[in-house]
Amino acid sequence: MAFSKHTKFQNLDLDMTFGNPSPASSFMLYSSVPQRILGVIPARYSSSRFPGKALISIAGKTMLQHVWERTSQARYLTDVVIATDDERIQAAAQEFRARVVMTRADHASGTDRVAEAASASPAQIVVNVQGDEPMIDPAAIDAAILGLLDDDMGAVPMGTIKKRIERPGDIQDPNVVKVVTDAQGNALYFSRSPIPYAREGEQANYFKHIGLYVYRRDFLLSYSDLPVGPLERAERLEQLRALENGFKIRVVETEYESLGVDTPEDWKQVAELFEKPMVNR
Fold it and tell me: How do residues 10-21 score in pLDDT, each as one tens digit?
């Protein structure tokens, strides 16, 4: 798909709750994009908590197919590929005609797998879409991409998204990663602890980090070479590597509520949601 001029229109309203369009949030709409943007879905068969989860059935389709179909609806992606090291996943993806890139089996993280897939592509921007979120919202993917497209100077090499925390219990939950940003929307810090700390009598807004990442190609390909710092080791949050090495991360607020499948219990919960007619499949 070829793009030419770079034009914006104001006030595109998209609801980022499970992919249903309705007025919810405003951001810039690019009528055409001057860059190739690749979406990569890293998928592996092995999983310590849920082996083979990429191929589990949800509403008559594999979880992987749901992720691929919804990712393919993002308007700013010019290509979508599945990156895997497993022939079973390759065969399943080919059944629904997805493009597959076979990668090495020894990658330490999904980011490294995405980087290998991106290294063979001419795309200037690469989106890492988690393969275990069958309800991923295409509008959330577009919002993250726009965070980088709005950076005309190219000073921000990486982007992601956040959502306001509504459940009080999530603030204290270390499995819910929190993020704080500056006035320009760039990340100041990510933490498993409640941030910011609200002193007595003060009110604070808390935002959860949604693990969808957008990278400029050159930055992604060099990411694994960046030194791991003490903050990343302490929090076990890979995105802190960028901050510790002085790089900016643009964080866009959305209404998308992430719901990943890490365990069989998660699978049951997501399968029940797919039975509800409001879910746009």
Answer: 333 333 333 333
What class has domain 7-274?
alpha beta
Residue 276 has a CB neighbour count (10 Å cut-off) of 8
Residue 100: closest CA among 128, 55, 68? 68
Q: Do β-strands 249-253 and 178-181 pair in parallel, antiparallel, or remain unpaired?
A: unpaired
Q: Of 168, 197, 158, 167, nearest to 180 (Cα)?
A: 197
Q: At what angle do helices 138-149 and 63-71 cross, to 10 degrees?
A: 50
Crossing angle, helix 63-71 and helix 87-95, to 10 degrees? 60
Q: Count helices and strands (H / E) in the chain.
A: 9, 13
Of the segments 4-13, 54-63, 269-278, which one has the largest average pLDDT value? 54-63
CB 182 within 8 A of CB 214: no
Whole-model pTM: value is: 0.85
Q: Is 114 helix (H, G, I), strand (E, B) or coil?
A: helix
